[in-house]
Design goal:
The chain is of the alpha+beta class and 472 residues long. The chain has 3 domains: 31 residues, no CATH class; 155 residues, Beta Polymerase, domain 2; 166 residues, Orthogonal Bundle (cca-adding enzyme, domain 2). The chain has 22 helices and 12 strands. It has an 8-stranded mixed sheet with strand order 1-10-9-2-3-6-5-4. A two-stranded antiparallel ribbon has the order 7-8. Helix 15 packs antiparallel against helix 16, helix 16 packs across helix 17 and helix 18 crosses helix 20. The radius of gyration is 28 Å and the shape is elongated. The N terminus and C terminus are likely disordered. The structure holds adenosine-5'-triphosphate (ATP) and magnesium ion (MG). The site of magnesium ion has 4 residues, from helix 4.
């Protein structure tokens, strides 16, 4: 409102305002709207003690300090924030001195990590809006900037209006520079400033728009959304590690299927998750059903605040591709396990670059996939060995999802679930039954595939295109 007033004053009486009045009006234009946190429904129990203490200590040392960004947005929405950021006018060295356990990190943006027990609060100094010292790449992407400024500048540098709110838990005040409170109420994600310019500065903001809209159930404002399709390719200039982090956040948003389909409909996936085309356009509806189930199971775990394994998630996203190649190779006469190994290598090789997926997750994925045919072997020794595997639980959950979407025999899932619940006598009975069933040919079962030379493939009897109805 004050900003509007200033604009109107300037328009109505150009040249009539003294420079002092002009300065005053200008500084007023930078004043935020102030709300009482409790009146906006902030539940103090959702605020971490560590964040509150960080703010208090900085204020005691004579600095301004606020909880800022996504944490305030989430508090206003009644969501428990997953991390807390604090913004202050203290410079990194001054912040560090105010705490017993604090360290300065980062090059692109120098920040301080303040540690309280297991919690880390990220403290950043208000950043200036414009500076000659900001380092850009040839596409206009900001590479480095550590020029400190005023709080209103810091607010304007943030991405969305709902992310530019400052909360002081000591005075219970919310400072709103860009009508973020209004946008939270309307559930709108609106870029601060000119969206095109802001995407050029940092193309990750396009991914953040999609991710936050999915996470919060917000609409992306029209002007904020419009340039994304055209500018999507800029994603390719972002370092892989940052893209991967953003993809993980999207998969952990609690609404991952919606997030991924929006990512694709905006054309953003080409630069960071091209395999989505294969997932969403698979000719076999069971393939999409399988991925949807995996993502929904992930969302449910996020809502229950349970841990989610990135290896499992990527294993699920890529399974249809692996499975298809596995079947092709097996159909051409390759043995079951080598065929699976080859299929995995092929998929990892072709997808790894674009995905920028970290090696440790790749090895989780490989293990989960390689364990799948082992669920078919139900002799005591192999069952025990499989259960001892460190990744057994993930592989078992994965197999259950395959069964639920009809990609493998549902009775296999039932058998394993019964087995895990059973006492040792019942386990023996289950093993006997499983092997008795296997040796008895069942009417309607498909005959085992013959290798071109007429021999049956070795390895576990139930292959990808075999009698047990595995992934077809
Ligand atoms: P999440 O719920 O995933 O943590 P968030 O909005 O808090 O969402 P963070 O990555 O924790 O995301 O960022 C904290 C705050 O920093 C944001 O709310 C926003 O104010 C600011 N911010 C983060 N990334 C950007 C960016 N690329 N451009 C501008 N501001 C950003
Ligand atoms: Mg955050």
């Amino acid at each position: 409102m004050i900003r509007k007033l200033f604009k109107n004053l300037a328009r109505l009486a150009p040249g009539r305002l003294s420079s002092k009045a002009m300065r005053r009006a200008k500084s007023l234009a930078h004043e935020p709207e102030i709300f009482k946190g409790s009146r906006l429904g902030i539940d103090r129990r959702l605020l971490s003690n560590a964040a509150a203490r960080t703010v208090e200590e900085l204020q005691k040392a004579g600095f301004k300090a606020y909880v800022v960004g996504g944490a305030v947005r989430d508090l206003l929405l009644g969501i428990r924030p997953k991390d807390f950021d604090v913004a202050t006018n203290a410079e990194p060295e001054q912040v560090q001195k105010s705490f017993r356990r604090a360290r300065i990190i980062g090059r692109r943006f120098r920040l301080v990590h303040v540690m309280f027990g297991p919690e880390t609060i990220e403290v950043s100094t208000f950043r200036a809006l414009q500076s000659d010292d900001i380092e850009l790449d040839e596409h206009g992407r900001v590479l480095r900037d550590n020029v400190f400024g005023e709080q209103h500048e810091d607010a304007t540098r943030r991405d969305f209006t709902v992310n530019a709110l400052y909360y002081d838990p000591v005075s219970d005040q919310v400072l709103d520079y860009h009508h973020g409170v209004k946008d939270i109420k309307a559930k709108v994600l609106r870029m601060i400033g000119d969206p095109e310019h802001r995407y050029r500065e940092d193309p990750v903001r396009m991914l953040r728009a999609v991710r936050l809209a999915a996470k919060l159930g917000f609409e992306i404002d029209r002007a904020t959304r419009r340039p994304i399709r055209e500018m999507a390719d800029l994603i390719r200039n972002v370092p892989n590690a940052r893209l991967f982090d953003e993809m993980l956040k999207l998969l952990h948003s609690g609404n991952s299927l919606e997030g991924l389909s929006q990512l694709r409909s905006e054309g953003l996936h080409h630069g960071c998750l091209p395999l989505l085309d294969l997932v969403f356009e698979h000719r076999d509806p069971r393939a999409l059903d399988f991925v949807s189930r995996a993502l929904k199971a992930t969302d449910a775990r996020i809502h229950d605040r349970k841990p989610v394994s990135p290896g499992f998630l990527f294993a699920a996203l890529l399974w249809n591709l692996v499975n298809e190649r596995w079947q092709q190779r097996h159909a051409q006469g390759e043995h079951l396990i080598p065929a699976l190994n080859e299929a995995i290598d092929e998929v990892i090789e072709t997808q790894l670059d674009a995905l920028a997926i970290q090696r440790r997750y790749v090895s989780d994925m490989r293990e989960i996939w390689l364990m799948q045919p082992r669920f078919e072997k139900r002799q005591t020794a192999s069952v025990v060995r499989l259960m001892e595997h460190i990744r057994f639980r993930a592989a078992y959950d994965f197999m259950l999802l395959r069964a639920e979407s009809g990609l493998c025999d549902p009775s296999l899932a039932t058998w394993w679930t019964d087995y895990l619940d059973a006492d040792s006598a019942t386990r023996n009975t289950l093993i006997t039954q499983a092997n008795a069933n296997r040796s008895r040919p069942t009417a309607g079962r498909r005959r085992r595939r013959r290798k071109p030379n007429g021999t049956t493939p070795s390895g576990p009897s139930d292959g990808p295109a075999s009698s047990s109805g595995s992934d077809a």
